[in-house]
């Protein structure tokens, strides 16, 4: 049968060496130094030396003396025999035939290693476990493991597994009761009644008020936003904003609130007064922040998915609507630029030929250029086309979307400035 929170396997492994040890583990944890050898070599006969060495390394690595000191992995016996130069390791079977010798060895090792009885530190360990449980909220198995480490660090011989398990369970329960009573004492009778009211199911409803309040928004819509704000307002209006819960460790409060958020109202209702009040208080304190965060998160999603998305769709429609105007204006500018390049290109060719012949020609006049351009695109239409392109496409050094948004009406924005500079 399991020892409360320990499984059969865990209880059986307590205070014992592993069934199998690797060579690396043997060399790391079971090497005999000069001091060890001095103690061992003082014993008569090989089986006493080997048995004494087994007890030495066992208590050092486990923190306890085994009822049967030979109940260890065979590879450990061989490794110790190898270090001690004992050829036949099976001689250790004779160790313990004289029980008095074994107990004398235990006494010697306790004195040499400075080991203490558990009863000497039991109260101190209990206080330490309770303090750790109060601060961390660790589970019983975790507390059991750190308690074993605590004992070994202080060279205290491990007690029986049942004794240590019961000490851990009792101190953890004491820490929990302290938590519940501390939080419960922060409340007056009216507040306790208000918390109990959260577990009641209103007439005509299927769920308790607590079930309703701890349910976050699940849809993204205007009505859901209204519900989220109402939920936050109702939770904040319960009257627990001013309750100072900093008297308990944050981890314990968070642990208790998780239980309150996830637990069924019917189960919470069956708890004792202090535990029920403490759990509900921690839950409400958590929901005060969570409900506001849920409302803000929903608002962010609404803004991103509804308002900004709508603005982007309208912007895209506006771009599509103005594309024909932009294309027409661009075609006029392209035609005018083509004439300009053609006229100036022809003049440059004539100038090069004249230079080769040793002659010069008159430079092309602006009036001539405009005459050629206006033969293709009237000047007034060209001015309107330039304004349209600047308004719709923006200048070269601007962001396309920014320019599109910044474009104004006729003669506004960049267009007016371009008209003044060009003409």
UniProtKB/TrEMBL annotation:
Pfam families per record: DUF4158 (PF13700)
InterPro entries, per the entry: DUF4158
Location of the DUF4158 domain: 5-170
Identification of the protein by name: Tn3 family transposase
Protein species of origin: Thermocrispum agreste
